[in-house]
Amino acid sequence: MRFNYGWLDYGPTSRLQLELLRADVKGGSGPMFFSAQYRWYDGFDAVHHAYVGAKFNNNTNVKVGIQQVPFGLLPTVSQSFWFGSGYYLGIEDDYDPGVVFTHQRGNTTWHAGYFTGDEYGSGARYDRYSFDVAQTDALPYRERGRVHARVEQAMDWAGGDLLLGGSAFAGKVQNTQTRHHYGHQGAAVHAQWKRDGWTAQLQWARYRYDIPERRIALSAFDAPFEIAAQADVPSANLAYSFGENRLLDDVTCYNNLSMTRPVGHSAGVRDSWQNVTGCSFAKGIMLTYVDWIAGKDMWFAGGEGIGIDNGGPSQWHSRLNVNIGFYF
Q1: Cα separation values, 173 from 90, 98, 101, 121, 291, Å
Q2: Are 130 and 115 in contact (CB under 8 A)?
Q3: Distance from C-alpha of 17 to C-alpha of 126, rounded to nearest angstrom
Q4: Which residue in 87, 107, 178, 274 has the most C-beta neighbors within 10 A?
Q5: Distance CA 5, CA 274 (A)
Q6: Model's pTM, two decimal places?
Q7: By the 8 A CB rule, do 176 and 219 touch?
Q8: Which among 99, 114, 96, 120 is positioned nearest to 52, based on CA atoms?
């Protein structure tokens, strides 16, 4: 269970209240394994993931069901509770139904997968955890099939552990009124370096919805909004883990910077920024995040969407977010 408090400079303060109840189940027997998680938020509930898998050997496995999409740095391009811009664009910590093969050979890890669409098979359902294409009156689209590929190489560099990789996908979205399909592609190059408690992450991602409009709608947490239909998403993160001390099991402090750069900078779209500075505190079953989130034209940080321009002023907004979780 998790509790959340939020102070906003663009709206009313959200008092400390129950934010989430979640239930997990996982297990296995022999080469078979499974995992599922369901979540209850204020006003809605949603599946997080639910899959079964099989290990062919110590280096190769397959998973079938609603699972994390293998794209970019895994598990996330961030250390904060608030994640990075990619999460709100559906390219970070996204969970969809599909099949994924994972193979490790030496220091190289490969992912190959196919996803049928979003986890509910309908863009008209907005109450979900993952950010997926939303079906709205103005932009009536939904996700269709996508093919994913990802490779990552581990190596020693400058006295630390370096991960270098690339990801790509190609698929379709469908206009639910005309039934016409349009291309949906994305790619990313990513790197992560760890040494003596330090973690540095760099990623440059891009996504393209080849639709006639300059925008497309996404939804999660029961809230649809619009994003630029084509954009690049650079991220740069730095974190330091202080490790265990007399009071806490770990303290990790971080700064996560990301932006959304629409292609062409045409009318109706503009850059969005998000920066999260904070620390996480771990003690036994408790994990607490204290984050200062600053966003410019950024959804969930005072903006009307991501990468869009409705003619209003372009300005920064911020919020203080405290999340206290208990994991039994």
Answers
A1: 14, 16, 24, 12, 35
A2: no
A3: 22
A4: 274
A5: 19
A6: 0.95
A7: no
A8: 99
